[in-house]
Structures are given as C-alpha cells and as structure tokens.
Amino acid sequence: MLPYPLGFWQGLVQTMSIVRNLNTFKMGTIVELFQGVSIWWMLALVTISILITMVVCHKVHSLVTKFWWTPLKLRKTMEQQGWKGPKFCIFVGNIPEVFKFRKGELSKDVGIRNFDIMSRVHPQYILFSKKYGNKFFYNMGLDLVIMVTNPNLVKEILLDVGNYHKARPSTFGLSKLVGKSLLSMNGEEWANHRQVFAPAFRIELLKGLVNKITKSIISRLDIWEEKVQDGGGLMELDVHHEISIITTEVISHMLFSNNDEKTQQVFIQLKTLFEILRDQVTTNPFFYIPGYSILPTTNNRKMVNLAQQVDKTIKQIIQIRHAQAKANKTSYGDDLLGLMLTSMDGEKVGDVIKCQLSIQDVFNECKTFFLGGFETTSTFITWTTLLLAEYPEWQDHARKEILEVCGPNIEMDTSKLNQMKNVGMILNEVHRLFTILPRMIRVATNDTKLGDTFVPKGLMLEIPTFQIHHNPTLWGEDAMEFNPNRFAKGVSKACQDPQGFIPFSFGPRYCIGQNLAMLQSKLIVAKVLSRFQLSVSPNYIHNPQYLALLTPKFGVQLHVKKLPPSTSS
Ligand code: HEM
C-alpha cells in the first residue's frame, strides 16, 4: 500500500479512468474496474457518498416535512376537533380559488352606501364560512389558517405575545424587501425596538408637531384654493392623491425633520416598490410559492433594485446627519432618525441605556415608518372625506362644530381637537366601516389552547377585523349603515363588546402611530371642512379593494367648492 498522499493521487487518476470508461461500462466488469484502487481512495469515496446521501436525505426529509407532512398534520389536528376546510393544492394552497371568487365579486358594481363588501375585502371568509360554517380552515400557500372572530378570543391572542407571534405568511416578499423591523419582529428584539421609538409617539411630543402639520395642510389647501378659483369656483380633485402629499410631508418630518430632495427620493422609490409588491400579492398566485420571490422575474428584479436604491439613499441621509452632529457637536436630534442614531451609539438617555440598533436596523425601520406612516393615514382620511361628501348632513354637523370650537380663524391645538365630539364620532364610524387594515395574522409558536380549541404550533390565526366591525350581533341591526351617532356615548355603548372595535389593534402591539394618525386626521378634516364644501364627483368609481390596505382602487374624485367667507376662515 502506498503512503497516504501518493495513494490518494493514484486513486484519483484511477477513478478518473473509471469515470472516462463509464459509457462503455458493463456490470460484469465492476470488480475489474475497482481492482488496484487504493484503500485510501475507496475509503474517501465511501465517506463522501455517505455524507452526500445524508445531506440529500436530510434535505428531502425537511422539504417533505415542510411542504407535505406539517400542513397535513396541522389539518388532521384541526379536523379531529371538528374544524373543516377545502382540499388544497401543494404550494399555492387555496389561493387560486380565493382569487377566482374575488375577481367575480370585484366585477360587480357596488354603491357608496353599500357597506356589505366583505366578499371584496375578505373573500376567503365568505367563500369558506358559507361552505363549512364558522369553524373552517384554509391554506394560504403552505400555511394552514383558521379565523378567530370572537372578540374574547381575539383579546386572548393579542395579549399573549409569547404564544402568538407576528407572522407574515412565509411566502410574502414584503418582509424580505423591507427586512425585519418593528412591524414584523417578535420577543426581546421587538421589545427593544419598540422602546427606542415609543418616546417619539407620546402625545406630549406630538403636541409640538401640531404647528408643523398645520403648515403642511395649509400650504396644500392654498393650492386647492387656487385650482378652485381657476375652475370658476368648483374643482374636481383626487383627494387620495392630495391627502397622501400632506401625510408624506408629515411622516418625513417625523422621520427626518425635513422633506428635502433626498427624503422625497426615498418616498418615490418606496411607493413604487410597494405598488409592485401589492400588485404581486393580490394578483399573482405564483407569488405564494416558496422561493418564487427570489426568482429573477422582471418584477422581482425591479423590487430588489428599488430596495437597494432606498438603502443607498437612506445611507446618504445618515451620513449627512452624522457629519452635521459631529461638526456642530450636537446630538442627532429628536426625530425618529435621531433616536435611531442615538441608539446605534448605545447612548444613555436619562437612566435608561438604549438598545443598540445596527445600521441595517435603521434602514429597515426607516422603510417601515415610511410605508406604515403615509399610506395608512392618507387612505383613512380619504375614506373619511368620501363619506362626508356622500352624507352632507354629517359634513354640516362637523363643520358647525369645528367653527364653534376653533373660532373663525380655525386656531387648533390638541385640547380643541379633543372637544370635537362629532368629528371624533365620524372618524370612529369610518374606522368601523372602512377598516383599512381589515385583518391581522399571528402564528402559534407553541402548542397552546384558545378557548376550547387546541392550537398546534405552526397554525396561523387570522383576525378578520373587518368582519368583527360589521357583525350585527356586536353592532346591532344597523351594522351596515353609516351612523356616527352610535359612538355618541363612547365605544363601550356602541358595541356589545369593548374588544369589538380594534382599528389600531390593542394589547402590547397596538399601533404605535395611533396618536399621530388621529391627530393628523382631525387636523386635516377640520382644515378642509372649514374652507371647502365637498361633494362626490360623477366621475368617481366606487371600487374598494383589499390591496394590502383597504384602498379606493381608482382614487376618490370629489368636487371641491370654496365656502363663502361667513362660513370659512
Ligand atoms: C389610520 C391610520 C393607521 C391605522 C388604522 C393603523 C393600524 C394599525 C394596526 C391595526 C396595527 C397592528 C397590526 C398587527 O398587529 O398585525 C398597526 C401596527 C403598527 N403601526 Fe399602524 N396604523 C395607522 C397609522 C400608523 C402610522 C401613522 C404609523 C407610523 C408613523 C404606524 C406604524 C405602525 C407600526 C410601526 C406598527 C407595529 C407596532 C408593533 O408591532 O409594535 N401606523 N397599525
């Protein structure tokens, strides 16, 4: 036998000749072929073959477990407890039939006063509850989902952040593009991030923003006024577009204390990214196949490219801020970026040492706040203006109250905003009827129990907020009507169950931007109504759709008329 290195090389040369001869290889010659191969080489070959076989078996096992065994096991566990659901197609689950049903529903006309739009917003609920009753499950891609509509059980889920984690379905691309952030993190990581941002959203701090927000609103409404004058006293506007200009400015101030060219660049890139992604999630069933989002399709490449551009621009904004703080020997500032940079340094604020964020965390959180901050609020305010235009009697009530509380010059501060009871009732009713985040999703991280139901680890739980907000058992026979009066004596009197009204969720993970969103909404509604009369344009096509948010598909075209000086400021 040759010493090891020589034996190895000899074995290699012999094996190459075996491989070369493979095409003329006959079973009978197998022994002949291996004659003379060194023992070292034989051992190496056997070891490598065993290792490869083990890796392949492990991969196959985990793929079979993920794609076949786990979904089937979860299904069986739920079936044994009396839950039922449709058969599913591997990879895409029940998505194709949901999309097909939804397409049919979306092709039907719907009137503005018809709030019975569950089949457009949450087609899976209508489709499967009709066939299987309330205890149904379905597959969203690979994930097995059940719906929880009972407010007490919803409360249990939202309070138990240990057993129920935030979950994007495994196949969704948003988390891959935006990265891990406050919106999607869990456990200690989430708690640390939440602690960094919470101070910026305290109502006392937001009070200081009133003037900045009011300035943004007034400068945009001045443009409206010019347009109305040019149009001979009446003008058609797409309010969704108009309001999003204001809310973008506000979130830019919250994040970066300004709305300069670079900030606007981030916004445009993120908006485009979000629109492509929204289109993929809502129209392309293949998007739900695991791994699809990393294929080099045109849209996937566009999204990755945009996400990289956003990171690059944010990096430049951070570099400028760093340089300024260093040159002026000042802190990083008290906007959200300032808080994040302070936290990157692990600085001590008061008695608390803030957690250290990484640069990637800062990129991701900037993207999350941009996306979470502008589109949600602008969409909500857009629906509010539509309903005020559709129900002129409520528009008059609100305007009268605004003028009484704020005086002819419409001077506003947070205490005045709190006195606007009618405006508050109207906003609540819009939250109820046009719940812009119509569902929340959690995943069970442990085997646990929810009411009488055993919840196996890995099961997805969907909270259909929209359905809860429209349920006649909770809201009475007029649940499908626009009636802000139901909130006259507060939420507890409007709904059978206090947990039946959750537009901002509740528990530890309630919306961090709730105060900001409500402040902006009241300021914008008050300023708009004090200067303009709104009515629905005949060009408006009512087409509410669930596109990540409950959105007016074709914008909201309203007729805007300048009010005479006696009624306006
Ligand atoms: C009308 C406007 C808004 C509505 C209806 C709304 C609604 C919600 C809801 C329902 C959640 C919980 C989602 C879940 O648990 O699955 C949430 C979370 C969140 N929202 Fe909002 N939101 C609005 C505005 C905003 C604004 C203006 C910001 C930021 C400036 C914001 C930032 C966030 C963040 C970061 C979270 C995650 C909080 C956490 O998990 O700790 N939202 N929002």
From TrEMBL:
Claim: Zinc-finger is one of the keywords in the record: no
Keyword Oxidoreductase: yes
Gene source species: Sphagnum jensenii
Record InterPro entries: Cyt_P450, Cyt_P450_CS, Cyt_P450_E_grp-I, Cyt_P450_sf, Cytochrome_P450_Monooxygen
Family annotation (SUPFAM superfamilies): Cytochrome P450
Protein's recorded name: Cytochrome P450
Membrane-crossing segments per the record: 39-57
Location within or outside the cell: Membrane
Keyword annotations of the record: Heme, Iron, Membrane, Metal-binding, Monooxygenase, Oxidoreductase, Transmembrane, Transmembrane helix
UniProt superkingdom: Eukaryota
Pfam families on file: p450
Protein family membership: Belongs to the cytochrome P450 family.
Main location per the UniProt record: membrane
